[in-house]
User: Fold this.
Amino acid sequence: MRKLNNRGDTIVEVMIVLAILGMAISICLATANKSLLNTRQAQENAQATELVRSQIETLRVLSCSNITTTSCTPKVGLDSSTPYCLVGDGNILVASQDYTPKPITDEGCTQGAAQIQLAIQYVASAPSAPSKFIVSATWDNAQGQDEKDSVVMTYRMPLTP
Assistant:
């Protein structure tokens, strides 16, 4: 006579398997969420860096009007001690364009999906030293915390020969 084992799994075994699967799925979701946040932060940082570089390029063109003699002097308004940003009309930048500094409270100084706030600060220097501009971009942290992320670059105008 053959004896069959019809017992099956107990409820305790099933609960243990479900707990292990739940933990594994939770770990996968947490890892995916962290990866998405890191990707978003990297995209925002790249966008902010590009905006800061475009502000520096605009400063370079506006302050070095005579490239052949490397004569660089800030246009009127660019040497303001009050923070500002430069907003163009979207055309190709040429030295003759009238780019006027805009106060950082102007909506043109906030750009991109991450609402990146641009600011340029002129730092006065001695006559024999190059003029210096500090260009920064600030935006809310991708993690939604009260912290802010930022990119800061410095542009020094070449000295006049």
Helices lie at 11-63. The first helix runs from residue 11 to 63.
